[in-house]
Write a structure and sequence with these properties.
CATH architecture of one domain in chain B: 3-Layer(aba) Sandwich
Radius of gyration of chain B: 30 Å
CATH class of one domain in chain B: Alpha Beta
Helix content of chain B: 55-70%
Largest sheet of chain A: none
Helix content of chain A: 55-70%
Shape of chain B: elongated
Order of helices and strands of chain A: H
CATH superfamily of one domain in chain B: P-loop containing nucleotide triphosphate hydrolases
Largest sheet of chain B: 7 strands, mixed
Structural class of chain B: alpha/beta
Strand content of chain B: 5-15%
CATH topology of one domain in chain B: Rossmann fold
Number of helices of chain B: 30
Oligomer: heterodimer
Strand order of the largest sheet of chain B: 2-3-4-1-5-6-8
């Protein structure tokens, strides 16, 4: 692949990444304002920790 | 036009199987939100009665009573009284009762009946009761509760679900109050209800009973005290009508309820006449919660867990490293040199691979946590820790959120909702991120490896354990300080169930392992991938005008290099150069990105062929030939990562849970400042006096 084309594609990937982060931030901000349960970037599966002992 | 759905509230003690029953009744037809003004989860599900009628099931927070000490209990009470804005009073209540703990569970049932709501009882865990050689006669129990329907079930096996749906389909039955605390108490309740009726208060009798039986609502200094004018009227009734007694009126009501519960239990429970013997769990607990032996065993369990992480994980980590290396070679051989090849090989594969390689260790950590939870040991660990927590003024209830924070601070912080005292809750939220979360694990492992290149697994395990202990001690230290600064209250009493020991539920453990693994990989494939691309871009652009510029100089001239040079004076006292400083700044977005960033930065240069990150860092040299990642630089970095608050997601959750900007900002400032100075002290003292 031509070096110039590589540069343009790489720049395109970076631009798309920046746009994706911006879109994610906007969507999460809207969700938080509407009173939903979104925590903003949480990667953990459960909102409440499991209680020790028997499952609830 | 279809009639509105009937609304049924689901209540029960914690650990009675309420959520299991909720899931069995509603399946996937659930939605989760929040109650307004409080950080309590609102969970609503839908089901159809046997006649096809739509029923809305509201899963209320688990609570032992409606005395409203915590937000959870207050929400449950307010929903049942119809006082919560945005939530209709339920048409009936489905009380889930743990059959193996009937007397304790009946207290809440009696309180719900007191509120004049129709009640259906799901008598859950009957198998556990039968294992003890006892059984409950549901008809006798129903009769004792004034005809309240009692449906035996086993929610986890979905036994009795159809019968419960049938009971929900029938017209609701409303029982009368089951206890009597004396004629004077009855007069007080009647006259109090009359006052509330005169003030057009809805559900006057239920509210009157709630106010009279809850001391906090009649305490002028308590934040949840009722209107003082109304309080004055009620107080004069109590003063004029109450007989002289050793007990205040609210205690007499509690005593009357328990007396009734004793009578109900005697009439409904069969069997269990054999003399009580100590169970296997009781015998094991004699050792596991012993003040000295219990601690030693707890430490041994933790050390075993960390040792396994270093030894068992090495083979799969080599596979992953080899896999990413092969992938990088494959792509590299197919593309000519250029920006895209550099982005894919060094940016994406190098950046994401530098984090994914730690998947085996994270899975081992969660495997141990799952087994310890499922076997019942975690409750014992919480009990042991309560002794320590109370010395810094914290409630043992804080241990559960802090323990969860070892996985991730976010569910830990959200778990503080069960802490009744607001100041205790705030203190727990502020210190939770000090517990070393799994995002720090990749950073710890790589730095321990660079710091101790020839060390065996035992040494590395000890260092890892030391880091976790350091974070825990830091949490206790700051909790002690904050407790004195924010709250003069003594620690509130700690109540926890110690469930019987049992074999871990392997299916559940492996299901959780799979879930955690997928979450980790999803994060690697999204956030880490995105940040790796941005880090690559920042370290590549702007490109020098002369294409033959050596890569080291090109890196210095990039955006990252320029920003790094600006912050270099700040990180110099810690022994870091601008490259390490840049990696630290990037890792404020996500801690494990440190590995990605440092990997991208240090793979640039003459060692670009060297694919092992640990070797690349160990070989990185200053202009004078000294190692960049010396022992004390690594030690200082580790201390920095133990204490610094470097998680935007945690910041957002703290802001939401404390409903302010002040506390998350304070948290970032105190943690990062302490991390900075602690790392500086370690580096300066260590390198000056210990070489």
């Amino acid at each position: 692949m031509h070096e110039d084309l590589q540069s343009w594609i790489a720049l395109g990937v970076v631009a798309v990444t920046i746009a994706a982060f911006a879109a994610r931030w906007i969507i999460r901000r809207k969700k938080r304002k509407s009173g939903g349960c979104g925590s903003g970037g949480c990667s953990c599966p459960a909102p409440k920790p499991p209680r020790p002992g028997q499952p609830d | 036009m279809s009639s509105p759905a009937r609304k049924i509230a689901l209540v029960g003690n914690p650990n009675c199987g309420k959520t299991t029953l909720f899931n069995a009744l509603t399946g996937l037809r659930q939605k989760v939100g929040n109650y307004p003004g409080v950080t309590v989860e609102k969970k609503i599900g839908e089901l159809r009665s046997l006649h096809g009628e739509k029923i809305e099931l509201l899963d209320l927070p688990g609570t032992y009573s409606l005395s409203a000490r915590s937000d959870d209990e207050r929400v449950a009470r307010d929903v049942l009284l119809g006082d919560l804005k945005g939530t209709d009073r339920p048409d009936a209540v489905l009380c889930v009762v743990d059959a193996s703990n009937l007397e304790r569970n009946l207290y809440l049932v009696l309180q719900v009946i007191d509120l004049k709501l129709p009640v259906i009882i799901a008598l859950n865990m009957i198998d556990v009761l039968e294992e003890k050689g006892q059984r409950i006669d549901p008809d006798a129990l129903s009769q004792q509760l004034g005809g309240t329907p009692v449906i035996p079930c086993q929610a986890n096996q979905e036994i009795g679900i159809v019968d419960i749906k049938a009971a929900l389909s029938r017209p609701p039955h409303r029982a009368h109050r089951r206890w009597n605390a004396g004629d004077d108490v009855e007069r007080i309740l009647e006259k109090s209800a009359e006052i509330l009726i005169s003030r057009n208060h809805p559900n006057a009798a239920a509210h009157a009973l709630t106010i009279i039986s809850d001391r906090a609502m009649r305490d002028r200094n308590h934040p949840h005290c009722i209107d003082h004018a109304l309080l004055g009227e009620l107080e004069s009734i109590i003063q004029s009508e109450a007989k002289s007694s050793d007990l205040p009126i609210e205690s007499r009501i509690v005593a009357a309820r328990y007396e009734t519960i004793g009578q109900i239990s005697a009439a409904a429970v069969r069997g269990g006449d054999a003399p009580m013997e100590l169970s296997f769990s009781d015998n094991l607990d004699a050792t596991l919660i012993h003040p000295i032996k219990g601690w030693l065993i707890f430490i041994a369990v933790m050390v075993t867990m960390f040792y396994s992480m270093f030894t068992l994980a090495s083979v799969p980590m080599d596979w992953i490293d080899g896999g990413f290396g092969a992938l990088g070679e494959f792509v590299g051989n197919r593309l000519v040199d250029g920006d895209l090849k550099d982005l894919i090989v060094n940016g994406i594969i190098g950046g994401v691979g530098g984090v994914v390689i730690f998947l085996p260790q994270i899975l081992i950590l969660f495997f141990f946590i799952g087994v310890l939870e499922s076997s019942g040991y975690m409750a014992r660990a919480a009990f042991i820790m309560d002794r320590l927590m109370s010395k810094v003024g914290l409630n043992g209830k804080s241990f559960i959120p802090l323990l969860s924070s070892y996985a991730c601070a976010i569910p830990g912080i959200m778990g503080t909702r069960t802490i009744e005292d607001d100041k205790d809750r705030l203190v727990t939220i502020l210190v939770a991120p000090l517990m070393s979360c799994t995002a720090r694990l990749p950073v710890y492992v790589i730095l321990i490896g660079v710091m101790t290149p020839n060390a065996d697994a035992v040494t590395r395990t000890s260092l890892m354990f030391g880091l976790y202990a350091l974070g825990t001690l830091g949490a206790f230290f700051f909790a002690w300080i904050f407790k004195r600064a924010f709250s003069k209250n003594a620690a509130s009493p700690f109540l926890i169930e110690l469930p019987p020991y049992r074999m871990p539920g392997w299916k559940l453990v492996f299901q959780q392992l799979l879930d955690r693994g997928l979450v980790f990989l999803k994060r690697a494939g999204t956030i880490i991938l995105g940040l790796s691309i941005l880090i690559w871009a920042a370290s590549t652009y702007p490109k020098p005008a002369d294409p033959d510029t050596p890569r080291e100089i090109a890196l210095e001239q990039s955006y990252m290099g320029q920003a790094g040079k600006i912050i270099e004076p700040v990180v110099k006292p810690l022994g870091y150069d601008w490259k390490i400083g840049s990696a630290i700044v990037w890792s404020f977005a996500a801690r494990e990105v440190f590995n990605s960033a440092i990997g991208i930065i240090y793979k640039v240069g003459d060692d670009a062929e060297n694919t092992e990150l640990e070797n690349a860092l160990a070989n990185a040299k200053n202009p004078d030939g000294s190692p960049i990642f010396s022992f004390w630089v690594c030690a200082g970095l580790l201390v920095f990562y133990v204490f610094a608050q470097q998680c935007i997601a945690t910041f957002a959750v703290v802001k939401r849970e404390t409903a302010s900007w002040k506390w998350p900002i304070f948290q970032v400032v105190y943690m990062t400042s302490f991390a900075y100075f602690a790392a500086m002290a370690v580096y300066q003292i260590g390198s000056r006096f210990f070489g």
